[in-house]
């Protein structure tokens, strides 16, 4: 497993990280969650990403129980704040940030996280208050570094402009061969400010592994067939996209890679990408994804990928689910 520096921080993260969004928040059973986590350590994956909103704390609680068996300095732990935890608990006010970090730490059974991320931008709270709240978390020793997920360039610049506050070191966008919007503005802006990308959905919900065939029903054990885990995959389950993805199989074969390795290596070709977050419901998936670390693609392979996918690629920036544009400033 290769590691990369996370932005301008002192954190080093594994190129492949394990996420817990749809799986460990209730999509799979606890014993499989533990088996996948053990497989991650066995494969050299030491970066674990979760959020308070995943299963309203369920994912954090599961990992709190499981990761407590490992030395705290043997892994990098990230969580997030923003989405509702109750009718009254949501957003990025200073009070909510202070309340939610304590609740997350209790569920995770640790005294600090390595990375505390804003799950989205809060257009109802002045950006100055949000940045001061995040800075207080770091100053209290409850987080080592801070990041954000799916902020617009305007929002990123607003956060960076608040004087006397902690600097961001990570951005978590959706990014894959099929979803390239961050390349337009977010990645160049972050690169100029010492902020790395930690990419979610680099396998496009598993579509880029080649498991879904055009004109056929999804496999019964797949994410697309699961009511609990299929909320976002629908955009890719169409014949045009699946036919284009099927053409990648020859590209992967020519490169001596599996389709998953090809997709993850494509994301990691970006110097500004520190890690690609993968989900897994079985230990063998963890090991298969981990093998993408350290793989490098030739210019010919990159060109073949673009030719295979053609116009099914989303290149323009798109609003993230749950995201909003604009910035509120303190009066």
Please, could you describe this protein's structure?
The chain is of the alpha/beta class and 331 residues long. It has a single domain, classed as TIM Barrel, CATH 3.20.20.100. It has helices at residues 30-43, 58-67, 94-108, 127-139, 153-160, 186-192, 239-246, 248-255, 259-268, 283-290, 299-309; strands at 3-5, 12-14, 16-19, 47-49, 76-81, 113-118, 143-148, 168-171, 196-199, 273-278. The strands form 2 sheets. An 8-stranded parallel beta barrel has the order 3-4-5-6-7-8-9-10, surrounded by 6 helices. A two-stranded antiparallel sheet has the order 1-2. Helix 1 packs parallel to helix 10 and helix 3 runs parallel beside helix 4 (127-139). The longest helix has 15 residues, at 94-108. It starts with a strand and ends in a 22-residue tail after the last helix. 48% of the residues are buried. The mean pLDDT is 91.
Summed up, the domain count is: 1
DSSP strand content: 5-15%
Gyration radius (Cα, Å) is: 19 Å
Q: Counting H and I runs of at least 4 residues, what is the number of helices?
A: 11
- CATH fold title: TIM Barrel
Helical content, roughly? 25-40%
Characterize the biggest β-sheet.
Answer: 8 strands, parallel, barrel
Q: CATH superfamily, called what?
A: NADP-dependent oxidoreductase domain
| Measured distance between first and last alpha carbons | 48 Å
Identify the CATH architecture. Alpha-Beta Barrel
Strand runs, count: 10
Spatial order of the strands forming the largest sheet: 3-4-5-6-7-8-9-10
Query: What's the level 1 CATH class?
Result: Alpha Beta
Give the rounded overall mean pLDDT. Answer: 91
List the helices and strands in order: EEEHEHEHEHEHEHEHHHEHH
Instruction: Write down the overall geometry.
Output: globular
Helix- and strand-based class?
Answer: alpha/beta
Low-confidence stretches: none
């Amino acid at each position: 497993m290769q590691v990369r520096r996370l932005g301008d921080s002192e954190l080093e993260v594994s190129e492949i990280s394990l996420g817990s969004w749809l799986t460990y928040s209730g999509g799979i059973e606890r014993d499989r969650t533990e088996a996948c986590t053990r497989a991650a350590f066995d494969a050299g994956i030491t970066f674990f990403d979760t959020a308070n909103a995943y299963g309203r704390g369920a994912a954090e609680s599961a990992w709190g129980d499981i990761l407590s068996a490992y030395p705290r300095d043997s892994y990098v732990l990230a969580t997030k704040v923003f989405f509702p935890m109750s009718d009254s608990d949501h957003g990025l006010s200073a009070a909510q940030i202070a309340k939610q970090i304590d609740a997350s730490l209790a569920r995770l059974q640790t005294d600090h996280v390595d990375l505390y991320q804003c799950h989205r931008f809060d257009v109802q709270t002045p950006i100055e208050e949000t940045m001061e709240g995040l800075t207080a978390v770091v100053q209290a020793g409850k987080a080592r570094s801070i990041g954000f997920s799916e902020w617009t360039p305007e929002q990123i610049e607003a956060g960076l402009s608040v004087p006397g506050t902690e600097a961001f070191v990570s951005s978590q966008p959706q990014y894959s061969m099929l979803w390239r919007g961050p390349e337009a503005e977010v990645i160049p802006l972050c690169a100029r400010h010492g902020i790395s990308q930690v990419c979610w959905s680099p396998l496009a919900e598993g579509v880029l592994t080649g498991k879904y065939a055009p004109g056929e029903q999804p496999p019964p054990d797949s994410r697309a067939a699961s009511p609990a885990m299929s909320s976002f995959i629908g955009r890719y389950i169409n014949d045009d996209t699946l036919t284009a993805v099927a053409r990648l199989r020859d590209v992967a074969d020519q490169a001596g890679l599996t389709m998953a390795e090809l997709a993850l290596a494509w994301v990691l070709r970006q110097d500004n990408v520190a890690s690609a977050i993968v989900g897994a419901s079985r230990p063998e998936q963890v090991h298969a994804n981990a093998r993408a670390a350290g793989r490098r693609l030739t210019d010919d392979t990159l060109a073949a990928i673009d030719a295979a996918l053609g116009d099914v690629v989303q290149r323009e920036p798109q609003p993230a689910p749950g995201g909003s544009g604009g910035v509120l400033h303190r009066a």
